[in-house]
Structure formats: C-alpha cells, structure tokens
Amino acid sequence: MLSFLRSLASGAPGLSPKDAVARAAAGELTVIDVREGAEIAASGKAAGALHVPLAVLRMKCDPSSPECLAELSCERPVALYCASGARSQMAAQMLAQLGYREVYNLGGFGDWRAAGGAVTR
C-alpha cells in the first residue's frame, strides 16, 4: 500500500504490489529490480524480474543505447522495486524521461513478498 501511495504522490499512476504480482504472472508487466547484486544475493529477487542496478539503468534501458536490454520496450508496462522504494522512484522517473509510457514504483522488495510474489535465489 505504501508504494501505491508513493506513486500517487509522485504523479505517477498507481499499481498495488498485489496487482503487480498478478500482472507479472500473466505476462503483462516487466518487473525490474534496481538493487545491487549483493542485495539480491542476500535476499533473492522477484521471480522473473530483470536485474538492472540503478547505476547502469540509463545505459541498459535507453532505447537508443546499443546496451539496451532486448526484453524492454517503451510500450510495455514496467514496475520497479529496490529495498525501500527510494531508488526505484529515481529509476521510474528516469524511465519516464526515456519515453516509457507506463512506469510504476512498487516500493521495496518486501512489498513484493508481502503481496505473495514469488522469489528466486
């Protein structure tokens, strides 16, 4: 719920973690974990999520970059999370500036888990 409120406060459209889990499971949403590798090694990540640390997000998600991940499209909805929601908010703003049309900040990894999202290690 907190991440939903963060989205509303930022002017971005809201998506609850529960809805994100359902949309990701249905293949309707790309989930991106912007945490560092050590954080993922310690706790795992959302099943099916792409790992794109905030430090390399612009390079890996910019459609005009030769390093842009093939799994991404500006037309496909994207939801981001980190540990608490701060880095994912910065990442969401960055993706919106790059032209992604539907971008959500899910908040923290704990929000994903609390919503019943599967985790891989």
Automatic annotation (TrEMBL):
Domain of life per record: Bacteria
- Positions of transmembrane segments: none
Gene3D superfamilies given for it? Rhodanese-like domain (3.40.250.10)
Mind telling me which Pfam families this protein's record contains? Rhodanese
What are the Rhodanese domain coordinates in residue numbering? 25-121
InterPro entries registered for this protein in UniProt: Rhodanese-like_dom, Rhodanese-like_dom_sf
Q: Which PANTHER family does the UniProt record give?
A: THIOSULFATE SULFURTRANSFERASE RDL2, MITOCHONDRIAL-RELATED, THIOSULFATE SULFURTRANSFERASE_RHODANESE-LIKE DOMAIN-CONTAINING PROTEIN 3
Q: What is this protein called?
A: Rhodanese-like domain-containing protein
What organism does this protein naturally occur in? Defluviimonas salinarum
